[in-house]
Structures are given as C-alpha cells and as structure tokens.
From TrEMBL:
Name the record gives this protein: DOMON domain-containing protein
InterPro entries the record matches: Cellobiose_DH-like_cyt, DOMON_domain
Keywords: Signal
Domain of life of the source: Eukaryota
Record-linked Pfam families: CDH-cyt (PF16010)
Organism, scientific name: Cladorrhinum samala
Signal peptide interval: 1-23
DOMON domain ranges (all copies): 87-176
Amino acid sequence: MLSLLSDSLSIIILLLLAPLTSAQPGYGQVSKYCAPGTASAPKGICYLQYYISATAPTFRIAIPSDASTNTAFDTILQIVSPASLGWVGFAWGGGMTLNPLTVAWPNGNTGQVTVSSRWSTGRTLPTTYSGATYKTLSQSRNSTHWTVEVVCTGCSKWNGGSVNTQGYGQFAWALSRTAVPQPGSAGSSFSIHNNVGMISESLDSGKNARDVFTGWVNKKP
Ligand code: HEM
Ligand SMILES: *[C@@H]1O[C@H](CO)[C@@H](O)[C@H](O)[C@H]1NC(C)=O
C-alpha cells in the first residue's frame, strides 16, 4: 500500500514536472559532428556538436588538439539557427558576464550573418569587445535556417578565465526571437534573450590535429 502510494505520488510529480521541462530547451544533446573535406581543405574537420531543440540554435565547436588550458589559441564556432531567431549568443566561459560573447544575427535577407564580439560586466546589453576578433569562414541563409562559421582569435583566454581543454569546458548560450534594429552593424543594440542555457562538456570530440585545424581555418569559401 505504502509503495503503491509512493508510486502514484512519483507519477503525479512527474506529470507536474513534464510541462515545465519540455517548455524550456534546457539540456542539449552532445555528439561528434564531422564536416567532409572541401577542395581547399580536403581533410574536413570535427566538432563538438551541441543540439538543443528544433527551435533553438545548434552550436559546433572545434579546437586544435595540442591546445592547452589558459593559453591563447584560435577556436572555431559554427552556429546553425532557425530562421525565426533574431540573434544568438555563445559565451566562452559559461555565463553572461566577464567572458567573451560571440553574438550573431542575420543581416536581413542578404544571406550574410553579422558577428559581433561582446563582453558584459552586468546583465545588461553587452558592449563590443576588442579582445576577440573574428574571421568568417562561411555564412548562409535559406527559408528555414541561417548559419555562420567563424574563427575566433581571443575566445580561448581572457582577463579572468580561459577555455578548459582537458576537463569539462563551461559554455553558455542565449537566443532571442526579436530581430536586431541595425542588422548590418556589429555594433547594433539588441533586446534581451528569450532563452538561455549552460553547457558543461568535454571538448574532446571537437579536437583536431593541428594541420587539420589550420587547413580548415585557411579554407576558401
Ligand atoms: C540586451 C542584451 C541582454 C540583456 C538585457 C541581458 C540580461 C540578462 C539578465 C537580466 C539575466 C538574468 C536573468 C535571470 O536571472 O532570469 C541574464 C542572464 C543570462 N544571460 Fe543575458 N542579457 C543580454 C544579452 C546576453 C547575451 C548576448 C548573452 C550571450 C551568450 C547572454 C547570456 C546570458 C546567460 C548565459 C545568462 C544566464 C547565466 C548568467 O546569468 O550568467 N545574455 N541576462
Ligand atoms: C537550410 O539550411 C540548413 C542549415 O544549413 C540546412 O540544414 C537545410 O538542409 C537547408 N534547407 C534547404 C531546403 O536547403
């Protein structure tokens, strides 16, 4: 009787929790994603892929396998975003404040994606951050998605922290369904996110031999 009671109790608790957990894309699915080689980068590259949901962005991160914690090295970030999102953010140190933020948004219907380097000391509109610079490897837009892939110089180490290449790396993400007011400008303002989440993952599946990584960084569009 007692166990029957506690069984039904846990079912009730589960039923109560279900709508809460499904309403929020909290935890993503982690996998290793490899892109095939191209004419100018025949070896391709592999990423740590973080898939959240069909209505949220997917993030793919790649680093050189010889990179070590607390050093400066280039990182690759690919964002695949549903067309409905106004901006998408990725935080290299696991929270909104005091770490490099990569913020991206579609530039109207051009097929171009604006990438903005940001930093925030508080939970307000982040300011532009000159400690990280970006090179866009590819960008595209179709009726369902916009996507961008960048190389970041300055996202692996910053004043007060760094990307952990050995244990679990701490990252975070944010998304907004509101379009930015000046989409062609990396200095545009934008409004607060509709959703945020944390990522705590090993970067192992996103590690690539140095020549593979460099080949991808230098690949032609
Ligand atoms: C206009 C721009 C923004 C405003 C006004 C804003 C404001 C805020 C506020 C008020 C919170 C606390 C929310 C809560 O506790 O419910 C928060 C949390 C958060 N924000 Fe933002 N935010 C902005 C942009 C961004 C961007 C670009 C990112 C990039 C990744 C970001 C990532 C996060 C994350 C990960 C959290 C939760 C973890 C934490 O508090 O550090 N935010 N934000
Ligand atoms: C649109 O772009 C996304 C992201 O690159 C891709 O997965 C999808 O297959 C594309 N859809 C079409 C119809 O080309």
